[in-house]
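Hey,

The postdoc asked me to send both predictions to you directly instead of through the lab channel. I've kept everything plain text so nothing gets mangled by the mail client. Protein one:
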Amino acid sequence: MKKNNSGANTSKTIELKTILVVEDDRSHRVLLDKILQNAGFLSVLVQNGIDALEHLQRGEKYDLIIMDWDMPELDGLDTTRAIRAREQVENCKRIPILAFTACRKTGDREQCLAAGMDGYLPKDVWMPGKCRSWMDTRPLRKSANRIGARTLRSSP
């Protein structure tokens, strides 16, 4: 509780930033969820591009999308293209999309950016602070300031 100028208690509502995680590997989804929660974010987890598009079609709002590239049903590149087309048709705010992928061959980053993603992050190196660079926000609680770089090793 904070006190206003008159000395009365006022409550300040903190709006948490929400991140849509689109990842087919359950263990990666669970780990990302824990890391994002520890960094002060809310996360919504889906397992493929079709699920992601359904969430967006229902009008759910996200501050960032973390998108795997290689997924069944609808891959991350095609999902991103569909999101960007929808944003253009509906003239709505562009949601930053961060590629989170095990693909590290020459040209992979460029393919992600060409599909409409805003950044590229290999799965073997991931930092919660990167999310903040794609969103206009700052840490929401003191514990988020103590979280440093974390390494995520993708399973074979």
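Protein two:
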Amino acid sequence: MWSVEQFKARLKEMLSARSSAHEIALGFTIGTFISILPTPGFNLLLGALVVAVYPHVNKLAVFGAMAVYNPIVIIPFYWASYKVGGLIFGLNPVVHYDVVVISEAYDFTRRYLVGSLIVAAITSTVTYPLIREIVHLRRSRASRSSQADSQI
């Protein structure tokens, strides 16, 4: 597990990367989307696949987002996913099987997967401009700091 100091170092490295603010924000957004999907363990493989297919995406940002959305942080997103799916499909099952376990599993899975897609899409949409603005602010603050240092 990462310590707080290691996490801060990786975050600074990501924000000061030579990538554009768009590439960093896009990488973090993709990592966020993958992390919120109900694919525990498989999400690292999906992240590696995205990085391999899209070379301009900031790799550190993709995997940094996956580190942020760890198993403890992701719990509220999973709960929200089920609730959003429940709002869409309601309480009445669409398909009813004679075996109660199969019927309940189908109903839960349907609500949870659709809710996860919606929550992941909304969270990712909000994440992109937020991370892009953070990168811009961090870089402008760093450039002002270096200008002030050079004048001294």
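Summary for protein two, as requested: Helices lie at 4-15, 21-36, 42-53, 59-68, 75-89, 100-151.

Thanks,
C.
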